């Protein structure tokens, strides 16, 4: 399914593929996750984002392993259409220019040899600024050695993004992408002077994680019981302030015979970002893919911007987000 000219497509986030705390993952879900993956590929969602820290404890690396297994089972022609991205965590013990060597090799094994984009999972600027530069140098080495095609970063603000872009450019390595939390409940990146502006200026691809705000933007308050655990607690805290925003989203959705999720995803696309919603069931894929058939009008985008920026509540900021 082709998306309208001039706007990014839609990818798939796989944080929930192995996460028990927020998403209640259990290995019995794997057949449904594989069906979800296959449906995504069939619907033209070809970018899949994972991380080596998705799936902790006994499920360490589970998201990468599942994605690698599902991708390897595709016919070669379909497999070649994929863009497989992973993020490497700057854990305190990963130090120096070679600090990611073992982690990259382990991710590549789990992903059955397929990594198209490697990303620094978060900036260490706020707590260990000396750690970040050597790790990025090591990732740039991997690009220059032909081990991976592209290098990206995640959870960086405008100032840090410019600094990293400049440092990599001096080595002749392009900074391919920036991944940040971006949604109608986390709109800071698209404000004047935000990272969306910097990405447009420098030619960096902007990737929006949590574009549905952990699912809150994909449901109305009449959709039945809230999720259990911390997601439900967050929904209960935020929902009372979202009445006007959700009413406008519902109006737009009704005019397009679309879902609330499609409205939220197309708001990200209207700002030049590739949203990567977490998809766990084939029907969620259908809703996401349907958003590719239409765009928000400028008036609709501006109205949603005003409502989003006027909210007194929002998603919790990533604690590692740099300035």
Question: What is the strand arrangement across the widest sheet?
Answer: 1-2-3-4-5-6-7-8
Return the average pLDDT rounded to an integer: 94
Largest sheet: 8 strands, parallel
Radius of gyration equals 19 Å
* Fraction in helix: 40-55%
Give the total of beta strands. 8
* Quaternary: single chain
Point out poorly predicted stretches: 1-5
Tally of individual helices:
12
Content-based structural category: alpha/beta
Strand content: 5-15%
Shape: globular
Distance between the termini: 37 Å
One letter per element, helices H and strands E, the order comes to EHEHHEHEHEHEHEHHHEHH
Describe the structure using short key phrases.
323 residues, disordered N terminus, globular
Verbal overview:
The structure is a single chain. The chain is an alpha/beta fold and 323 residues long. Helices cover 41% and strands 11% of the residues. The protein is built from 12 helices and 8 strands. β3, α4 and β4 form a beta-alpha-beta unit. The N terminus is likely disordered.
């Amino acid at each position: 399914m082709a998306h309208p000219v001039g706007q990014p497509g839609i990818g798939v986030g796989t944080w929930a593929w192995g996460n028990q705390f927020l998403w209640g993952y259990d290995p019995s879900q794997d057949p449904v996750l594989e069906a979800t993956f296959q449906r995504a590929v069939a619907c033209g969602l070809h970018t899949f984002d994972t991380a080596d820290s998705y799936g902790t404890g006994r499920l360490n690396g589970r998201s990468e392993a599942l994605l690698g297994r599902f991708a390897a089972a595709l016919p070669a022609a379909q497999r070649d259409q994929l863009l497989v991205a992973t993020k490497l965590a700057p854990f305190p013990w990963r130090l120096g220019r070679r600090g990611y060597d073992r982690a990259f090799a382990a991710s590549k094994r789990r992903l059955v040899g397929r990594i198209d984009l490697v990303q620094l999972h978060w900036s260490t600027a706020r707590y260990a600024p000396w750690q970040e530069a050597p790790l990025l140098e090591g990732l740039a080495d991997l690009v220059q050695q032909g081990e991976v095609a592209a290098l990206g970063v995640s959870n960086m603000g405008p100032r840090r993004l410019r600094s990293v872009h400049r440092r990599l450019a001096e080595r002749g390595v392009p900074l391919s992408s920036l991944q940040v939390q971006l949604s109608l409940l986390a709109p800071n990146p698209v404000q004047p002077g935000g990272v969306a502006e910097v990405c447009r200026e420098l030619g960096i691809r902007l990737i929006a994680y949590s574009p549905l705000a952990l699912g809150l933007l994909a449901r109305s308050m009449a959709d039945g019981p809230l999720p259990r655990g911390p997601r439900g607690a967050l929904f209960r805290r935020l929902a009372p302030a979202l009445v006007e925003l959700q009413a406008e989203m519902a109006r737009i959705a009704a005019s397009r015979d679309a879902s609330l999720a499609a409205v939220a995803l197309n708001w990200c696309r209207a700002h030049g970002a590739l949203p990567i919603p977490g998809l766990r069931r084939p029907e969620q894929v259908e809703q996401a893919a349907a958003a590719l058939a239409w765009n928000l009008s400028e008036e609709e985008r501006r109205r949603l911007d005003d409502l989003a920026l006027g909210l007194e509540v929002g998603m919790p900021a990533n604690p590692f987000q740099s300035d």
